[in-house]
C-alpha cells in the first residue's frame, strides 16, 4: 500500500479495505511504519515505537474485529502497556514500566487496533502545549515551528500528518480539544466516567480526566467510543456499556436549540482577547447550524470564569503534589531529587502547602458549575464556544521563560510557598495558564461531553476548531450534531501539505 494512498483513509476506511481483502493488514501496518519513519524525524510526534511487537500482535488480530488491524498510537501518559516504558513525558519516569495493560489499551486491542508506539505529551500532561524537556518538541504539521497544543499534542501531530488515522488521547482540561483545534482534527471528550482509567486508577484529577481519541472523521470517533465505553469492575461511577453512537450518526435529526457564545463569561478576568479568526469561526459555526435547521441564539453560559479558573488550578496544584509523591514511591527517589522541570517542581511545592479546606472548597465549586450548566441546558440542547482565543502559538511562546523558571525556584525557600499562595500567586497562575484557553476546563469540571470540530482555516493558514458542549450523558446527541456538520461545506477536510511533513 503506497504511503499517499494510506494517508487518505480514516480508520473505518482502512478497516473496510482489509475486510474486503483489497489490502492486507500487514500492508496497512507497514504503511504506518513507513509514515512514522518518514515524518516523525521532523515532526517529533512519536516518542517511542514498538514496530516488532506491533507486527507480532497484528498477526493475531481476527477478521471479525471492528478495526481489523488498523494501526494506532497510545499516549505516553496513563495508557500503560504491560512491561513497557511509560514516562508521562518526564525524565523522572524514564525507566518506569507498568505491570499490566490499561483497560483502554485492552479494549482498543479487542477492537482490532494495533499499537505501534506512544505519542509525546508535556511533563505529567500539565500544559496546553507539548514541550517536555525530556523529549523533542512536536511540530504542528500545518506549519513548522508552531505548537500542536497539548497535552495530547503528539497524538494530534501523528493523525494530522497521516502517520496513523486516529490516536488515543486524554483530556483533563482541554487536552483532546485544544490539539484537535490547532491541528484541524475532530476531538471528542466523552462524559465523565464513560471510559475507565482502570486498573491503575479509579479516577484522575477527581474525575476531570477522561480518555478517548483524536480522529479525522466523526465515524471513527463514534465507532471507537461505542467499543471502549462502560465502567470497569473497579470503576467509581456506575456507567454501563452504551450502544448507539454509530447509529446516531445517521438517525433522523430533530431541530435543536443551540446557544452560541464567544466565551466572555469564562474568560472574564483573565485578559483573554479573541483573534479575528476565532470570531470568524464562531460566526461561521452559527450560520452553519442555522443552515442545518437548528435554532441558534447568542447567549453566555451562567458560569463565573474567575471562580472556575481558580477552582481548576487549586485542584491542579493538589493533584500534582500527590502525583510527585506517587512518582517518588514508584522510583525510590525523594521528591526533592526527582528529575522534573522547574515549573513542575514549583507547582508541586504550592500544592504541597495547599490546605485540605481550600482543596475541598475548590472541589465543591465543580458541583456549583455543574448545577448552573444543568439549568442552562434545560433551555439549550448544546452550547457552542471557542476552543482557544487564537490559532496555534509558536513553540516556546507559552512555555515559562528561563527568568520565570528561576523565580519559581525561589519557592524552595522555607515558607515561600505558603506566602506565595497568600499573596495571590494562584490567581496569577490562572491568568498565565488559562488566558489563551479558558473555554475548555468547564466541561471537565462539570463532566459534560464536549468536542472540537474543524470548521475554519485562519488567514495565516492554520486550522481553527469550534467547541460544542452537550448535556451530561448525551454523548450520542453530540455525535449526531457533529455528523450533520461534517456533511456541511463548512467542515474542513484537507490534510497539511505533505512537503512540510516530508
Automatic annotation (TrEMBL):
Which Pfam families does the record associate with it? Answer: Amidase
For this UniProt entry, the molecular function terms from Gene Ontology, in alphabetical order, are:
catalytic activity
Any idea where the Amidase domain is?
A: 27-478
- Its domain of life reads Bacteria
Q: Which InterPro entries match?
A: Amidase (IPR000120), Amidase_CS (IPR020556), Amidase_dom (IPR023631), AS_sf (IPR036928)
- Into which family does the record put it? Belongs to the amidase family.
Record's protein name: Amidase
Q: Which organism is it from?
A: Vreelandella sulfidaeris
